[in-house]
Write a structure and sequence with these properties.
Blueprint (H helix, E strand, L loop, with lengths): L25 E8 L14 H24 L4 E3 L20 E2 L20 H13 L2 E11 L12 E10 L5 E6 L19 E2 L7 E3 L8 H11 L3 E6 L10 H12 L2 E6 L10 E4 L4 E4 L8 E8 L13 E2 L9 E2 L4 H4 E2 L2 E2 L16 E5 L2 E7 L4 E8 L2 E9 L6 E11 L5 E11 L14 E8 L5 E7 L3 E2 L4 E5 L2 E6 L6 E9 L5
Length: about 500
Amino acid sequence: MSGAGCTLFLLYLLEVISVDGHPAEHYMAAVYEHHPTLTADPRAPHTRSAALELMYKNVAVYEEQVKEAARLGAQIIVFPEDGIHGFNFTRESIGPFLEFEPALPPKAWNPCLEPRFNDTEILQRLSCMASYGKMYVVANLGTKRPCQHLDPHCPPDGRYQFNSDVVFSANGTLVAIYHKQNLYFEAGFDTPPEVEHIVFDTPFASRFGLFTCFDIMFLEPAVGLVKQHHVRHVLYPTAWMNQLPLLSAPQIQRGFASSFNVNVLAANIHETSLGMTGSGIYTPSKSTYFYNLKSAEGRLIVAQVPVDPSTESPMQGELKPKASQTQNPVFDLPLDNSVCEVEEQSVHCGGRPVAPHKPAPAFFSEMMYDNFTLVPITGAEGELQVCANSLCCHLRYRKAALSGELYALGVFDGLHTVHGTYYLQVCALVKCGETCGEEITEASGVLDFQMWGNFSTTYVFPLLLLSDMVLDVADQWGCAGNNCYMHKDKTSSGLVTASLYGRWYEKD
């Protein structure tokens, strides 16, 4: 994919049932990056009628996008987090924006046909648009649910307020509700009393699961859905503020799909004043996405998705140590050409020996609010190592041409404590500006590289970002024992960052 993903991506619909009567191998999915109408002051009091007036403006845009997605053959559409009511509310001020959540068993209520509860006007509109569009609709909104004070988790005002994802079937039936577990400075909402693993099937594909925004950074529910419930299709409403060089929205969405061999349908808010953009449809090896901080408009993305994502999984080779293993061994990727064949190009995984040279001294730089230890890349080719705590990162590289750009290999092994607390192990090859760690989107350095580290966790996300916010995937990546690696045979354009982004959940 070229450019920043600023064009509409369309792939044509396959029939749900093939000519020989077998189920189709693909379905059509849509995500919509929505530029919301927001209240001027989310902390000010609102009446229910004023709240509905604002929410109806956003829902009307959703209805138009469902019509367009239906015209293009979509069978499911995902809308972003906070897209209906906005954000930055207090617990009191969000009250009029909340929808009543009835205590009904799954698939027992069709709000479009049975509008029998007060404060469910938005749920009714969503149900009807799913029915009219004949597609599954996934949307995010605030919900309220009464609770008794005998419930030890019940808030003092006698009701739960949840950041909720709702799913409606193609006939408008409410089939799933998920309450966000990992809130991100959301004073208006409660954490659910228990972690929720929400899974459902559709006529066109099975094992869908959903979680929201910041959930992607934690063991529960994200990893639990994939590992315990074998979810193959992740529905992901988000309101993600991009942070380079390691955590732009497309990077983490792409990394999750690659790491867990799942499809990810991700819809982000489009609010450029807050750095929010980046939505897409990702298979384990392909990306169809949109990222644009210059335009005020959102975007509908429609793409073909494999029913079985393992059919499009990237190849992962086994990591093998050299015969002369030392305390900090240098690893070769496998030499088996059948493993190293990637599409139409041949990847020579072993590489030739490089001349040893004295490495430059290590230095420290803040990256993503964490204190990374880095060593600069010097010369046309070489091998580097940098360590922090128990993690050592290794790099073998070759530049296609010399340039004045500075690249460095960095390592971080520690507890991240800004805007959330979670333990990281990271090996990162980054282009540096005035500092190594600042937000950069342009680069011209083209490299061959092999990067690996002795991670203490197997939950490692491969992130590869090129100039102009273009995503790429490694030719090979994977883990063997405690060693995880990434290999790329000449990036197609300038490298911004290549990272093995590890989450050591047990040490959070």
